[in-house]
Design brief:
This protein is mainly α. The chain contains six helices and no strands.
Length: about 160
């Protein structure tokens, strides 16, 4: 029985170490580099920024169905990206979490922005805050890992 318990404990420790996520060994910079690459952070950030451009185009076209669709896509992409947190860097995790939260709030505002002008103003404010938070996280990531997570042109 004791041998079975030792094997079970050994397997549990192995399983826990496997679940600790990409980048769990090495220097903090190496851990962050591995996490960024493993989560596809550049692709997810680019997708969200592209979603913002689509939302802005839909709002400009005054087409309610397009607005609803693009707002939903943006919210879903932010939610999916948020599921990759935490990162190995607490400051990056906080900035990205806050950015995804701002995107979610912006998406909620944009759903009725065509009917309620105050929501359009709120949408633009939350979108701007999210962009700033993404830029802050990108600056830290690039300084620590050399990886760029924002496309060359990230703002309109």
């Amino acid at each position: 029985m004791r041998r079975g318990v030792i094997i079970l404990l050994g397997l549990s420790a192995f399983a826990l170490s496997a679940c600790s996520g990409a980048g769990s060994s090495g220097t903090p910079s190496q851990q962050l580099h591995t996490w960024v690459a493993g989560t596809g952070l550049r692709a997810s950030t680019t997708a969200i920024l592209t979603d913002m451009a689509h939302v802005n185009a839909a709002l400009g076209s005054q087409q309610p169905n397009a607005v609803q669709t693009t707002c939903s896509v943006m919210a879903n992409d932010a939610d999916a990206a948020n599921s990759n947190l935490p990162s190995p860097n607490e400051q990056v995790s906080t900035l990205l979490s806050d950015a995804y939260s701002q995107v979610g709030i912006a998406a909620n505002d944009c759903f009725i922005a065509l009917k309620v002008p105050a929501n359009l103003t709120a949408y633009r404010a939350h979108e701007s805050q999210a962009r700033g938070l993404f830029a802050e996280a990108a600056t830290i990531i690039e300084a620590q890992t050399g990886q760029r997570i924002l496309p060359a042109v990230a703002t309109p």
